[in-house]
Amino acid sequence: MSDDAGLDRPHVFLPAEPSAAGPPLLLLHGTGGDERDLLPLRGLLSPGAAVLSVRGSVLENGMPRFFRRLREGVFDEDDLRRRADALAAFVETAGAAYGVDPGALVAVGFSNGANIASALLLRRPGLLRGAVLLSAMVPFAEPPAVDLAGTSVVVSNGRRDPMIPAALTATLVGQLRERGADVVELPHPGGHQIDPGVLPQVRELLGA
Ligand code: MLT
């Protein structure tokens, strides 16, 4: 994965503005998106904060993703492990280049981006400060026994999400809590989407 070795991987970096109060964000888009998709979340979640937004390096029928899947909801876990490690390396390289401590970053991922964000937490505990997982599934059937104490996670899934039954959300939340993560659930009434109604609460949690 040589595209991940330097700063060549497509991404956007926005430096912090003097008024920034909240944490810097690592933005991770959903399937078919790119590094520009989630930029509006900066103003809604952590106004003026530094932002690193990265494009997934896998193409599925022309649609960028962060890792391969065998079919909808069934992940290629070997590929997910490799891609999560490559993304972690990119975050470290970009953090050093742009002067942002990865340990201060909160990953904000939607759908496929949420799933690679969970994989990052589980593969590289301590790399990031935490994560906001929007429409998130279970990245690993049997995640590694890591210590996520001190890692804050928000999980916001839709009660009407046809791809994510409540039991799947419960499994994800359980896996993270069993490993010591501080998990807040913010369910919303919608489907597989980012519900704008929960964003003020997420912002409050990030600022706390
Ligand atoms: C997606 O369409 O991106 C799925 O919901 C999640 C995934 O494949 O990671």
TrEMBL record:
Keywords: Hydrolase
Coiled-coil regions listed: none
Keyword Hydrolase in annotation: yes
Gene Ontology MF annotations: hydrolase activity
Residue ranges of every copy of the Phospholipase/carboxylesterase/thioesterase domain listed in the record: 76-203
Keyword Hydrolase part of the UniProt annotation: yes
Name of this chain's protein: Alpha/beta hydrolase
Organism of this sequence: Microlunatus spumicola
